[in-house]
Amino acid sequence: MAEVLDVAVRLIVIVVAFLLLPLIVGQMEHKAMAHMQSRLGPMYAGGFHGWAQLIADGVKFAQKEDVIPAAADRRVFAIAPAVALVPYLVVLVVIPVGPGLVGADVDAGLFFVLAVMGVGVLGAIMAGWASANKYSVLGGMRAAAQLMSYELPLVLAASSVAMAAGTLSLEGIAEQWRWWWLPWQAIGAVVFFVAGLAELRRPPFDMPIADSEIIMGTMTEYTGIRFALFMLAEYAGIVVLSALTAVLFLGGWQGPLLPGPVWTLIKVFVLAFVVIWVRVSFPRLREDQLQKLAWIGLVPLALLQLALTGVVKVLMA
Amino acid sequence: MHIVYPVVVSALLFSIGVYGVLARRNAILVLMSVELMLNAVNLNLVAFDVWLRDRLHGGQVLTLFVIVIAAAEIGLGLAIVLAVYRNRRSIDVDRLRDLAEGDAPEVSPQSEVSPGRVAVGEDADREAGS
Amino acid sequence: MTSETPGFWPPSGPEVVFLLLGVVALGSALLVVTTRQLVHAALWLVLCFGALAGCYLVLTAEFVAWVQVLIYVGAVVVLLLFGIMLTRAPIGRSADLDSGNRWAAVLVALATAGVLLSVVVAGFGAAYAPLDPGQGAAKPLGSSIFRTWVLPFEALSVLLLAALIGAIVISRTDIRGRE
Amino acid sequence: MAIMDGYFGSYVVVVVLLLIGVGIFAGGLFANRMLRPDRPTPDKLTTYECGVDPVGEGWAQSQVRYYVFTYLYVVFAVDAVFLFPWATVFAAPGFGMTTLVEMFVFLAFIALGILYAWRKRVLAWT
After folding, report:
1. Range of the structural domain that residue C99 is part of
2. How confident is the model at residue D43, as a pLDDT?
3. Residue C148: inside a domain
4. What is the DSSP string of A103-160?
5. pLDDT at residue D110 above 70?
6. Where is the segment annotated Disordered (chain B) (predicted)?
7. Residue D78: which residues within 8 A CB-CB, separation 6 or more?
8. Given an 8 Å threshold on Cβ–Cβ distance, is A288 in contact with B127?
């Protein structure tokens, strides 16, 4: 019984983190972006610096009419947001926040994460096709091509860490991490983070929803709660990407003085801030520049990192 | 695990794939049915690997190789299908009979075009400029 | 050996899960070959592959299961969807997906199923394998690939290179051979 | 009571979380159904194309370049699959430099594919 209770507590923590952290990141984005652009951002909802803005947004979304266009494929249109959202929740189960503090100890954890996150691309294609809107189809195609191109450097950089640690378990990787991995895996970390940003379709990689070209891409026809779920998927994606980068490249819970979970949270939020900062600082890439960056920039860099990791590791052994 | 369960599932899956290959006209659907048959084979390989407790993991390694080759095959197959579509405006395997013996009904290259469609290939670069 | 082989009834937990996943896989596979909507066929294929990945997980082939998800669900289906989008992807039913020889196909498929089923049931009806996790993890697979199966592995790279170049040449009309 | 332990146990937890995820989605839609107005009009249900009436049908032909990128990914993904089991064993005793070289030969062959694509200007747009 105690065991079931233990698992239940872990699951509840994961679900709460999944619903809460994206909201905090979203609020942080509102405020940080506003201040970087010499604005104030939300100030009224909830009183103190508009802290309840996103809750108010959520309530508003939940009350909105759910419009499904007459020409759309209703069933596929309806479940596309779930396909985009649920993988991010499932991935959280293997991300450790402290020694032993993990939802489920999956031996192939790293590979599990990459495989499950790869499913999300179907959500974009389904949403784009089922909307029966030309702009959505174009957005869906762009999204799919982008996710596929950037999945590769992501996978290669992740496997470099797996090589360094000699295990695929995320907990094992974080345990083995030492400070000198920072310079050793630096290229891989940058490649992983940039590719992850592109996977999230955040600016400067937001061609699939480039509003000046194709309205809102795959999300053009979505309204109300389904649109909100897509947004939740985006911010949950920021949390997952930051957490993964923290665990793989920054040592997860390792750090002086403070307890492990606090260190994990600090690293996650610092990385999430970088995601927001990048959005404010860089203009959108063009579609061909995007593909070029993946194939001529990131993939060779990731291969270089693989070679570096392999040679150092074998020479050490 | 009784080994008969996986092998029965795999046999049925293979038969469904056989039906798909024979009954479908659209070339992409035929490719999908081929994938079903390959997956039936993979299930068998994994089941026998588990049953025979192969110390070299021959079954599972071969499954990985089959997955890799299937991915290469489907990509090449689709590239051919796209090339056929570009030239014929149709990917209907019943009507691609140029190599048939005897006097098969000729399909005119433009018969399947409907208005408003843009060709695959370099004419379709409209979107690139957007 | 036979002393430890349990009977068919009652089925163990993993067997129940396996059979449920098998039913899902077979049902969605049937929908793949019978649906009248092109894109739906690809989406049912996703469900079929997902259920098969679950089957591999139950059979303790952990790594193969996630390879199935990464490659089939995440890549091959997307490739198929691209193929559909590049040819014709109408919403709603298409009339011309099935050919005229449906009944012949049904006959052949039933005959195949009959032959295969009678053979495998007769051949492996009594076979039993206790599930023991750990055999399908990445490490044992890696050590057997790079100890025993290195040559086929290297041959694969040549095959993939050839397939890649072939696909590029076929799909791009502006690449020509030497005049 | 070892249901939540070991190999099967950890995947039971994963499946439960998957079901919770579906539950969150369904719950959101259910709350929405309880709270929302529902007054569809033909205008509201038309496809949105910047406010003008939709032209033609709701599907646009995509271009073949995207297909090539996707296939490039597929070819590399299937080789990245072998990187992971390799990563767990290549530094173990009995493998070492030979295994490292084997993988790099493999990667070099595939990398020739990228080089080819790049030389044939498949990766460039114009």
Report:
1. 13-133
2. 73
3. no
4. S---TTHHHHHHHHHHHHHHHHHHHHHHTT-HHHHHHHHHHHHHHHHHHHHHHHHHHH
5. yes
6. 102-130
7. B67, B68, B71, B72, C71, C75, C160
8. no
Q: Which residue of B has its CA nearest to C13?
A: B1
The three-state DSSP-derived secondary structure of chain D is CCCCCHHHHHHHHHHHHHHHHHHHHHHHHHHHHHHCCCCCCCCCCCCCECCECCCCCCCCCCCHHHHHHHHHHHHHHHHHHHHHHHHHHCCCCCCCHHHHHHHHHHHHHHHHHHHHHHHCCCCCCC
Instruction: Identify whether C75 is part of a domain.
Output: yes
- Count of domains observed in chain C: 1
User: What's this model's pTM, rounded to 2 decimal places?
Assistant: 0.87
SS3 state of residue B116 = coil
Catalogue all structural domains in chain B, each as residue range(s) with its CATH number. 4-126 (1.10.287.3510)
At A237-279, the pLDDT tens digits run 999 999 999 988 888 888 887 887 888 889 899 999 999 898 8
Q: Which residues pair with B92 in a beta bridge?
A: B26
Chain B contacts to D (CB-CB under 8 A): 64, 67-68, 71-72, 75, 78-79, 82, 116-121, 124-125, 127-128
Q: A94-151, pLDDT tens digit by residue?
A: 888 888 778 788 888 888 999 998 888 888 888 888 887 778 888 888 888 888 888 8
**Phi/psi at C98 (nearest 5 deg)?**
-105, 145
Instruction: Examine residue A208 and say whether the peptide bond preceding it is cis (omega within 30 degrees of 0).
Output: no
**Contact across the interface for D68 and C142, Cβ inside 8 Å:** no
A201 close to A139: Cβ distance less than 8 angstroms: no
**Which of C79, C139, C168 lies nearest to residue D88, judging by beta carbons?**
C139
Q: Measured between alpha carbons, how far is D87 from D110 in angstroms, rounded to an integer?
A: 18
ipTM of this complex: 0.87
pLDDT of residue B118: 41
**Given a cut of 70, is residue A228 above it in pLDDT?**
yes
Question: Cβ–Cβ of C61/B60 closer than 8 Å?
Answer: yes
Q: Is pLDDT above 70 for A42?
A: yes
- pLDDT-derived band at B121 (thresholds 50, 70, 90) equals very low
Which of C166, C158, C142, C151 lies closest to C67 in space, CA to CA? C142
Looking at residue C2, what is its pLDDT?
Answer: 46
**Closest chain A C-alpha to C35 CA, distance in angstroms:** 14
Chains adjacent to D (≥3 CB pairs closer than 8 angstroms): A, B, C
Give A177's DSSP letter: -
C86: domain CATH number? Answer: 1.20.120.1200
CB contact under 8 A, A138 and B127: yes
